[in-house]
Write a structure and sequence with these properties.
about 450 residues; about 25% strand; 8-stranded mixed sheet; 7-stranded antiparallel sheet; Penicillin V Acylase, Chain A; globular; alpha+beta; 12 helices
């Protein structure tokens, strides 16, 4: 998920990190369910009641929520919140009702929960340098992998309704993370940072609306026909459909939609990658390092990654010499952690999830599928040797902005840091690695 981050995040001690990791192992077992046919308010109430402990702990201990609470109590913050509420009530009244139910049953003030659901948009009004961080995706045609990243926390949970199952952050609408709905639509998110100073629809609400889509066309249309208050990257696909879409939304530019299933390889992190129309903001340095490691897996392997096992190897990577890992671990330079790794297998209709680092031999904790319009757990499935459809060509990333250089087809990759402090060079089967420019 897309998560928010402070530049002054506190580095957890190794012991505390170990304890956090131990707690995280139960995330996929912590499931809030909504009764079939529940209204949005009823579903919110059921989730709030079942996850009251997690929601209350989050709102009472999270630094960003504390900053948010203080902000909405100011005259400026209160006025902004009211304007956002009017817009979202007129656009997505059913999701406002869902938050209302969540608020009532968890005994959390509605205004605070609504503010949490537009947290990035609100805090960017307070601080233009506020950054969103989290999540990586690697695509190989009809397979894609996703690392769900965020600040260390044990308060996340799953939400399962008769419409979808989704990794969910406490007090927030589902959708702003990885998910699968009853129509076989798969979704994952990469945080992006976009701010134009205006009031617009929050990324949380847009992401939630995609869970209700019955087709890829409908989901794509939702991302294109909305007044965005922020920005986000959506990875979208559907079971038995050969197309996968990379969608970048922004408050500054029109939504950009790419069909990436025609590309052999594609990696996305937390910077805008489709064009140079958006500023370079957000989790930039970490994104470049993760990109470089993903590219290395392509260029220095005898055979390009094509199997689920190959993707798991990439998503578990912790080999960056500067400690900006693809599988994140809260260290001295990168304070996020990876909660889960998910493989979306569109051809075989499976979503496999790991809640620990996917080193050799680790089996998925759970595998989801859809049967007769119902989301089910698939038993006795081990898809680690499944492979993607074969393709030709190579495109890991395009960054047509002046501060980056990209040399694509043929397996040569050069990325220049926008701060001109580092250079990454990768050649297929070559030995060239990092060069630090001082």
């Amino acid at each position: 998920m897309p998560h928010t981050s402070s530049r002054f995040a506190i580095f957890l001690s190794p012991l505390l990190l170990l304890l956090t990791r131990t707690t995280l192992a139960s995330i996929l077992d912590r499931i809030a369910t909504c009764s079939p046919g529940s209204t949005p308010h009823q579903c919110g109430s059921q989730v709030g009641l079942q996850m009251k402990t997690q929601i209350n702990h989050y709102v009472n201990t999270n630094d960003s929520v504390s900053k948010l609470r203080d902000f909405i109590e100011t005259d400026f913050g209160s006025t902004l919140l009211s304007q956002y509420l009017d817009l979202h009530t007129s656009t997505f009244p059913h999701y406002i009702s869902e938050i209302s139910g969540l608020s009532t049953s968890s005994n959390t003030p509605f205004n605070l929960l609504f503010a949490i659901n537009i947290q990035s948009e609100l805090l960017l009004h307070l601080d233009n340098d506020y950054e969103l961080t989290g999540c990586s995706d690697y695509h190989v045609r009809n397979l894609w992998s996703h690392n769900e990243d965020g600040p260390p926390s044990s308060d996340t949970y799953m939400v399962k309704t008769d419409q979808y199952i989704a990794f969910t952050y406490p007090g927030q609408l589902s959708g702003w993370a990885w998910s699968l709905n009853r129509h076989g639509i798969c979704q994952s998110i990469n945080a992006l940072t976009s701010y134009n100073g205006e009031i617009g629809i929050g990324v949380n609400f847009l992401a939630r609306s995609l869970l209700d889509a019955s087709s890829l066309d409908e989901a794509i249309s939702l991302t294109k026909n909305i007044n965005n208050g922020g920005g986000q990257h959506f990875n979208l696909g559907q079971f038995q459909n050969p197309s996968i879409y990379s969608i970048e939304t922004s408050s500054l530019t029109p939504t950009s939609v790419l069909n990436i299933s025609k590309k052999t390889h594609f990696f996305h992190a937390n910077i805008y990658q489709h064009n140079d129309a958006n500023p370079i903001k957000g989790d930039v340095i970490s994104s470049i390092h993760r990109l470089s490691r993903a590219t290395t897996h392509f260029t220095q392997s005898e055979n390009p990654p094509t199997s689920v096992s190959d993707l798991l190897n990439i998503m578990s990577d912790q080999s960056d010499p500067f400690n900006y890992y693809i599988y994140r671990g809260n260290n001295n330079v990168d304070h996020d952690v990876t909660f889960t790794t998910t493989i979306f297998d569109l051809k075989n209709g499976m979503v496999s999830v790991w809640d620990e680092r996917t080193v050799e031999g680790v089996e998925a904790r759970v595998v989801y599928g859809v049967k007769n319009g119902e989301i089910v757990v698939l038993d006795n499935v081990d898809e680690r040797n499944f492979t993607s459809d074969k393709g030709v060509g190579f495109e890991m990333l395009t960054l047509p902005i002046p501060n980056y250089v990209y040399l694509g087809m043929g397996g040569v990759m050069v990325v220049m840091c926008f701060l001109s402090k580092c250079k990454f060079t990768r050649k297929r089967n070559g030995e060239k690695g990092y060069e630090l420019i001082t």
